[in-house]
Automatic annotation (TrEMBL):
Keywords: FAD, Flavoprotein, Oxidoreductase
PANTHER family: FAD-DEPENDENT OXIDOREDUCTASE 2 FAD BINDING DOMAIN-CONTAINING PROTEIN, FUMARATE REDUCTASE
InterPro entries associated with the record: CobZ (IPR012831), FAD-dep_OxRdtase_2_FAD-bd (IPR003953), FAD-oxidoreductase_2 (IPR050315), FAD/NAD-bd_sf (IPR036188), Succ_DH/fumarate_Rdtase_cat_sf (IPR027477)
Organism encoding this protein: Polymorphum gilvum (strain LMG 25793 / CGMCC 1.9160 / SL003B-26A1)
Cofactor(s) recorded in Swiss-Prot or TrEMBL: FAD
Keyword Oxidoreductase applies: yes
Protein name: Precorrin 3B synthase CobZ
Stretches assigned to the FAD-dependent oxidoreductase 2 FAD-binding domain: 9-434
GO MF annotation list: oxidoreductase activity
Amino acid sequence: MKCERLDTDVLVVGGGNAALCAAIAARRKGARVLVVEAAPKFYRGGNTRHTRNMRCAHDTATETLTGPYTEEEFWDDLLRVTEGNTDEALAKHMIAASKEMLTWITEQGVRFQPSLGGTLSLGRTNSFFLGGGRAMLNALYLTAEKLGVDVLYDAPVTALEIDGGSFRAAIARIGGRDVRIAAKSLVAAAGGFEANIDWLKEGWGERAENFLIRGTPCNRGDVLKMLLANGVEAIGDPTQCHAVAIDARAPKFDGGIITRLDCVVFGIVVNRHAERFYDEGEDFWPKRYAIWGRLVAAQPDQIAYIIFDAKSLKLFMPSLFPPISADSIGELAHKLDLPVEALETTVGTFNAAVQPGSFDHTVFDDCRTRGLAIEKTHWARRLEDPPFYAYPVRPGITFTYLGTRVDREARMQLAAGGATGNMFSAGEIMAGNVLGKGYAAGVGMTIGSVFGRIAGEGAANHACN
């Protein structure tokens, strides 16, 4: 069968935030740009559809941000959550470039609103998209289309032609036909491999069968595998990822942010044996919420339960699903199919260990336990006001960190040494350069926006010169 042919200056593979920032930046540099998105138009945008904010350094308060967030503080936060597992030079380059992003992305039609409340505590550090991720995406697509960027949907890339570290063409499956797309530059922004359970199992084993995928089912890592097979250098650990505890009743794929639970700090978390296994009050939620997916993944059957009482019910944004409630801890244990005596003992022992203090979830308060094997160091209150509530949670994988190594120009590096000739990457597919482990709220969108813009401009400069 004869393969149809297209050609362009810059080919962008992917359809989310990073891809659109790259496409817009390349088009504004004068390049012809084609975006190929594996998903149908309604589901375009990958995980960006489910986001709500991005973290950028800024010097002063704005209409939507309550105060400054310096480059130094951003770096300290990133260093803390990654525990040093980051490319320092590249991360600091991203943070410095993030200062321009709020202005740049607003110029592309994206609008912001003041921070949401609850346990997020992000009013100073993170900018929230007016209308959420889908509205943000729609604004970027509208701008791209007005600029003359071409977009093909339902167009998964099935092969890459790479010669000596230089991109020649991609084969995409479009309308049941193979189409060869030649381009002078490539921007790979096709996400991670979190929706590929078999690939997850290579690192996690059978535990991955119990993982829920928060975002798109399209992120299977096909483009990443092709790039690595063609000599691009890998970076990152295949078991490291952005993983949070989400409602265990969420769908296997695409449940999105409405299945996330922000109530850990208000209660205790137990496993299927009704045992606590970590300090629920270790740090502010935006800096530590992403550790809970990995913690739950290490528990029997990869499930846990957040237990809290009536006084905390309205202090956080709820899940899509209602909490399970009961008038006593014993009744709650029955409903959760947990050992009744064990849960009653865990709660009773916890309550006895809670020290007097002034509860305030917006600061590191003095409400803590004393005498437990695993202390709760902040925001500890006795669970004694019925009804009692619980959310069952499982690991919710947002995106994986194994990806392509890049330099500060977002140019992919070769495993044999040196940079590729005309291949750039942005977003989740190269997030492991910045995120070796851990996560801070909004950083994924920062990586996508900053490196998307850098990649697009670099790809256009190469194509036009």
